[in-house]
Each structure stands twice: as structure tokens, then as C-alpha cells.
Amino acid sequence: MSKLLLKYLANFPRSVKGVLLLCFDAVILGFSMLLAFAVRFDPASLEHQYRIFSNGVWVLMGLQLLALMISGLYRSVLRHAGTELLVLLLRSVLLGAGLFALLDLMLEEYRMPRSIIVMSASFAFLGLLSIRLMIRWIVRLHVVEPQQRENLQRVVIYGAGSAGLQLFESLRQEGTYQISAFVDDNPKLQGGLLRGKSILSFAGLQTLHANNPLDSVLLALPGVKHEQRKKILQQIRILKVGVRVLPTADQLMRGTADASQLQEVD
């Protein structure tokens, strides 16, 4: 239910998501102000002090929200935000606090202790950053990554030797494949793990494919003889799954193919 709700919210127009985030920010700014007062004043006089400086409190919060809006913070895409998010937030909070500090100097009715301005700005920065990092993490975990996994091709690498390992590292960096396991005909390797992936026999490959169909088998055996390669390909064709192979040693020697270039097999 929560995942469906997150997907529903993720599909909202950016303007709607911006308004929702603005509401969250207003709440965070309010809590930051209360926390600053709680740190600065004695609990017994907290309510009294808040009444004295209430005009300044609302103006400071309004200026902080205005600074957040004019900084372009609500136009950035949270799920892809990086260090620019940190810079935007810091600039916005400093701008809001700076504007209020100028107002504080000019108008008597909006006077507020400097410590409150500094502490509320600090707490606001931490709170605003935390809520964005939390939203980003939740969206990435429950929306973005599941969508990416759905689009990944499920494959196994046939060959748990050095060529298979190199192919695994290359595909992992590429990010378009979900590597389910390795397959190898060597009984000594079968049942082991390579980079956290199980090394299966051909029978294990059949079981894996039957339980959760694969998109392709990637043959990483550049050094095997032609007859052995042909035999392996005949076995794989039983599964009715796509097959791609790394170039043979002969092709690599002649320079007609790249070591990480996968070739389709008809």
C-alpha cells in the first residue's frame, strides 16, 4: 500500500510536489524556531519570550520561505540532486537570515536576539537538508530502483574464469543487466560464489531459468575449442533463451574484436 502511495505521489506534477515540499519546509522552519527559543531561554519563560518576539518570528519565517522560493530550490529534481542541493539550501538559509538581520537593524518592532537568528538558521538548514535526503532515499529505494530493476535484462554468465569475471565487472558498471549467476562446467567451481553470485552447473541453470526466466546467457569462454563451444551452445539452445558470446581467442589475436564486445549468436 505504501509503495503504491509513493508511486502515486511520484507521478504528481512538479508544481504540486513543490507545494507539498514547501508545506514540509514551513513546518520545519517552525520547529527550528521553537528549538532555537528552547535553547536560548529558560523553559519557565519560554512562552513569555515567544510572545515578546512573535512579530519577528513570523517575519523571519516568511523571509526564509521567500528565500527558498526565489533560490530555485523547488525547481530542482530531488531524486537526482547532488552537491548543488547543499549549496542551494545553504544560500537560501543565509539569504533569509541576512535579510531579517538587516530588517532587525532598521525596525525596532522586529528586534530579535542575534543568537535566535543564528540558531534558527542552523537548525533550519539541518532540518531542510535532512528531509530532502530522507525523501530522496525513500523515493530511490521504493520507486526508482524497482523501476530500474524491471527494465534490467536478467542474464547469467557462462564461464567463471578470468574472462567471466572481467565481463561481470564491465556489465556491473554499465548498469543495464541484472546478473543472476555464473555457470561453469568445472565441478570444483560449482556450488561456490564469485563476486557474491552462485556458480551453477548446467542443471542448475535449467532450474534457475524455469523458476525465473532469463533474457540471455552470456558465454565468456574465449579460450575453449570450437567443438566444446558448439556443444555448449547446443545445450543452451534447449532453454530457448538468447545467447551472446565473447570473441574467441583467435578473433582477439587478429584484432577483429574487442575483449568485452558481446556478439549475438543466431
Based on secondary structure, the structural category is alpha/beta
Average residue-wise pLDDT:
80
Roughly what percent helix? 55-70%
Order of helices and strands: HHHHHHEHEEEHEHEHE
Summed up, the helix count is 10
The order of strands across the largest sheet is 3-4-2-1-5-6-7
Strand content: 5-15%
Radius of gyration: 30 Å
What is the distance, rounded to the nearest whole angstrom, between the alpha carbons of the first and last residues?
Answer: 44 Å
What summary fits the major beta sheet?
A: 7 strands, mixed
How many beta-strand runs? 7
Shape: rod-shaped
Unreliable segments of 5+ consecutive residues:
248-260
How many domain regions? 2
Describe this entry's structure for a reader.
InterPro entries: Polysaccharide_Synthase-Rel (IPR051203), SAM-dependent_MTases_sf (IPR029063). The chain crosses the membrane at residues 20-40, 52-73, 85-103, 115-135. This is Polysaccharide biosynthesis protein CapD-like domain-containing protein. Keywords: Membrane, Transmembrane, Transmembrane helix. It comes from marine metagenome. The chain has helices at 2-10, 14-40, 46-52, 54-70, 83-106, 114-151, 162-174, 202-211, 226-237, 249-254; strands at 153-158, 177-183, 193-194, 197-200, 216-219, 242-245, 263-264. Helix 5 packs antiparallel against helix 6 (114-151). The protein is rod-shaped. A 7-stranded mixed beta sheet has the order 3-4-2-1-5-6-7, with helices on both faces. It has 2 domains: 2-150, no CATH class; 152-264, 3-Layer(aba) Sandwich (Rossmann fold), CATH 3.40.50.720. Residues 248-260 have low confidence and may be disordered. Strand 5 (216-219), helix 9 (226-237) and strand 6 form a beta-alpha-beta unit. It has 266 residues and is an alpha/beta fold.
